[in-house]
Amino acid sequence: MKATRRQLVRWLGRGAAAAMVSAGQQSPGAIGRARPKVVIVGGGPGGATVARYLALHGGQLDITLVEAKSRYTTCFFSNLYLGGLRTYDSITQGYEHLSSAEGVAVVQDTATALDPGTRRLRLRSGASLPYDRLVIAPGVDFRYDAVGGYDETSAETMPHAWRAGTQTRRLKQQIESMDDGGLVIIAPPQGPYRCPPGPYERASMIAYYLKRTKPASKILILDSKNSFSKQSLFLEAWERYYAGMIEWIPASFTGGVKKVDAKAYTVSTSDETFEPAVANIIPPQTAGQITQQLDLADDSGWCPVDPATLESRLRSGIHLVGDAIIPGDMPKSAYSANSQAKVCAMAVASELIGSERFPARFRNTCWSHLTEDDVVKIGADYRVKDGQIRKIDGFVSQVGESMERRAQAASEARGWYKGFVKDVFG
Amino acid sequence: MSPDRKDTGLKTNPMDRESPRSVLAAATAHGRGVLAMSTALTFCVLAAHAPGVSATDHQLGAYLAGECTACHRAGAAQEGIPSIFGLPESAFVAAMEAYRSGAREAMVMRSVAASLNDREIRALAQYFGTRGVPQ
User: Fold this and answer.
1) Which of A4, A211, A325, A349 is most enclosed, with most CB atoms within 10 A?
2) Residue A185: helix, strand or coil by DSSP?
3) What is the pLDDT of residues B44-100, one digit of tens each?
């Protein structure tokens, strides 16, 4: 059946198909049946990009995006909000363009279950959506089994703020209301987690704010790891800009945070207890919860996929992109999710409407802010090798670079945000 | 001129410093006389697909362009990121070749250019050349 339809699409030819599309938004799929349906769960950088890039096929596909939130606050650049360099509104994006200009049906709801027999996705509201292909882009969820006393309730007062939203605002309020001379604890998790340099950019941005307003304050990073992304660049910057303010303690000294008491507001390692003014506990992570419900995650808590198509290795017909997947050499980042989404959209469109497919290529680039005008970057190019996503070539900023170069990277980062959210949300 | 920058002998080229100015401006300042001439000619064929470009190459360009639009927005240049929509094909190709050879230094663009072969660069040049005008 499937092969026959694809053959028909190919036989119709691109000229004929294109003419039909421009004439009346008809499509080859419309012959004898409705347009093929793609349902996408999750409206972050992964899911929204899949929707946009499928929509580029000029109405040949019926695309529905299911997202619980009406607006999306980006994790990327949320540290700049904490540093006072961005407003909350400026890092919050809407779905209006996707729904009005690009023809994507945006449904504000939550996926709950699947009926693979009839290919329908059930939603919390009670509705169910039929699909020919399903794409799941749920981001991360948090594991509350690593730090004693840290759960969803204590996360309200000791916010992780690792999914941008109310917790991000709360963390900023706490930093703003603390007294000069107070202690901020940041507890980064073991990997893999979303945005590997994120906790260290966060320390830099909080210090950027405190240096101007409460210069006697301290930031203590109680790490669960012994090394981290862009480490030499961060350590150089902390010495240069925030000497005596930021202290990083690797896991080899303390073993990381073992226990918290949210009521008493204390944070403990195996042999010391701190009384911080602000505790930013970032728990270890796992693929978004829906992947457990739909049996898409393996024992690692993450989702294995065929990197050439981003199709689940556990359930056919379902694709995954972004933080939830096992990404080979790629880091978990919005940029990675956006890159994977384009490969996924190409594979899904090829399957459903017979459009051209090319070998998958992936890229990540990440800018980290040390100050407003001192920004470092890291990036790499990836391909599929032996069924895995493998790094081909990469680059990273260097210790001791000129300030001119760093300021140019800062300007580039600001430009990237504008371009990137346009690519994701339209 | 910072001491850590590779001396390319192209000191007037703003792209050496990863400047936000447009790639077109950089490309025409590049010192290859043929560029300035071809720029004017290329504008004449902006609206049409370049002769000899197959449908597959056009779709290849569209696919590869996704890697560019993660940073480069349609329409106006953003701060720090030049506009590449509507860039004449010859200027696009010259810029990518300069990044690939290292004649122009820009960490991200050098990595992007190194990942593309000649056919892919031509497909991209054709794709962006027929979309919009340089700002």
Assistant:
1) A325
2) strand
3) 333 344 555 688 889 999 999 999 999 999 877 889 999 999 999 999 999 999 999
Which residue of A344, A362, A416, A425 to mutate against B (max B Cβ within 10 Å)? Answer: A416
Q: How deeply is A390 buried, as exposed, middle or buried, from its count of CB atoms within 10 A (0-12, 13-18, 19+)?
A: middle
Q: What is the DSSP letter of A52?
A: H
8 A C-beta contact, residue B16 and residue B9 = no
- Pick from A82, A196, A62: which is nearest to A133 by CA? A62
ipTM computed for the complex: 0.88
In A318-357, the residues whose Cβ lies within 8 Å of chain B are: 335, 338-339, 342, 346, 355-356
Could you tell me the CA-to-CA distances from A425 to A76, A347, A420, B71, B117 in Å, in that order? 14, 20, 9, 13, 30
Q: Which of 205-224 (A) contact B at CB < 8 A?
A: none
How would you class A235 by CB atoms within 10 Å of its CB: exposed for 0-12, middle for 13-18, buried for 19 or more?
Answer: middle
Q: Do B17 and A408 touch (CB under 8 A)?
A: yes
Phi and psi torsions of A113, nearest 5°: -155, 170
**3-class DSSP state for residue A3?**
helix
What whole-number distance in Å separates Cα of residue A311 and Cα of residue A315? Answer: 8
Cα(A358)–Cα(A363) distance, integer angstroms: 15
Q: What is chain A's length?
A: 426
pLDDT over 90, % of chain B: 49
Alpha carbon of B37: minimum distance to chain A alpha carbons (Å): 30
> In chain A, which stretches have pLDDT less than 70?
1-33
Find the residue in B nearest to A338 (Cα).
B70
Label the pairing between strands A361-369 and A278-281: unpaired
Q: Considering only residues B22 and A214, tell me which one the structure prediction assigns the higher pLDDT.
A: A214
